[in-house]
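Subject: sequence -> structure tokens, single chain

Hey, anyone have a minute? Need the predicted structure for the following. Not urgent.
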Amino acid sequence: MAIKVFDYRTDIANVVINPELRGRFVKMDPAPAGRMHSHDLGGEIFVVLEGSCEFLVEDERVTCGPGQLIYVEPTRKHTLHAVGDGPCVVYLSVTPHVDPTHTVYDEHYQELPPQYRGVGADTAGIDIAELSTRYLGSARRLAELAQRNVRVAEAQVTAVNSGDKAAMDELWYGLRPVLREVSSAERAWNLLAPRAMPKE
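Reply:
Had a minute. Here:
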């Protein structure tokens, strides 16, 4: 499979969308800042590529120029906008990218009900019952793997506490399938969640 190359001068869009990460290039003309939002699970990185961008994070503000980066932790309210004489281009990534990707607020900063966007989800021709079954299966596998991981941890904790590298490796080999199944559950969820939105 060929490595895909994206260019911020031509690819102003989502360029990577999966449960592990959403990455996109955004071009903005100078305008007032939009309403703040947050991400329940995801941290977000912003890198300014061109122009000047002001970031509002909770009650703080910072203006960044080309080559500068900020990180916004999960659950922190934030927004951004171009400032200065011309547009700005920003690369952003949110990880993990689990629907609902954004927590939105009213004008008094009271949390509004979740809105499932389905960004990157293609479920055309798949019955909702099939999507629900897929998610349930992944949730069950995750629970089983988590229980197995607990048993491994209980068996190895004393050896880990005494500095036994082999025991630490066993903990990792117990945890790794759990984390892989978390990703599978997120993927199944991201396909199912948008189907909860009412038809317009």
